[in-house]
Specification:
Elements (H helix, E strand, L loop, with lengths): L3 H11 L4 E2 L2 H7 L5 H8 L9 E3 L4 H14 L2 E5 L16 E5 L6 E5 L4 E4 L5 H9 L17 H8 L6 H4 L8
Parallel strand pairs: 2-4, 3-4
Antiparallel strand pairs: 1-2, 5-6
Helix pairs in contact: 1-4
């Protein structure tokens, strides 16, 4: 359980509407079809549910959340689209918060000359491909996941090994 004063501090950082300790919300974030998670849920393991869900919208808010988590000894589980089958977004310890990055969904810049895109973590592969194709560019591959998945989290989780990796390189090599 996370203390009320810590929850209040989180609300000050990201806004009251973007922090939830409601059991229904927390249960929704404790889902994953991986067999080990299903077994843990069947055994009624309480650690499959985060103690708190926090949804920041800026880098500064993420920094504020991380400072509080460090100060109060909270485990942080960053979450992209949540479309994984590996249990990456499910808590394995008590005093865990899910840091849902869905509000961080903006493409900040597309540098056509240097072929560089700056974006926030929740931008999908489909959106990147759409925006680059409008400029006559192409992303160079497709992720080993649905196009609705976040490009950055997919590359970080799985290395960005795509069908076109031999021609364009691994997706993870393009993330700074």
């Amino acid at each position: 359980m996370i203390e009320p004063h810590v929850i209040s501090a989180m609300r000050e950082v990201v806004g009251a509407d973007w922090v939830s300790d409601d059991i229904v919300v927390r249960q929704a974030y404790g889902r994953d079809p991986h067999p080990s998670i299903t077994l843990r849920k069947f055994k009624k393991d309480p650690l499959t549910i985060p103690d708190l869900v926090v949804i920041p919208s800026t880098t500064e808010e993420v920094q504020g959340v991380m400072r509080l988590a460090n100060r109060y000894g909270l485990n942080v589980i960053p979450m992209g689209s949540g479309n994984n089958l590996t249990g990456f977004c499910i808590p394995s310890r008590s005093r865990s918060i899910t840091l849902d990055l869905k509000r961080m969904n903006r493409i900040l810049e597309i540098d056509e000359e240097n072929k560089v895109i700056r974006m926030q973590p929740w931008v999908s592969y489909a959106r990147v491909q759409t925006e680059t194709m409008k400029r006559g560019l192409w992303n160079g591959g497709c992720p080993a996941a649905p196009a609705s998945n976040n490009l950055i989290s997919n590359c970080l989780a799985y290395g960005g090994d795509w069908q076109t990796s031999l021609a364009y390189g691994l997706g993870i090599r393009g993330i700074l």
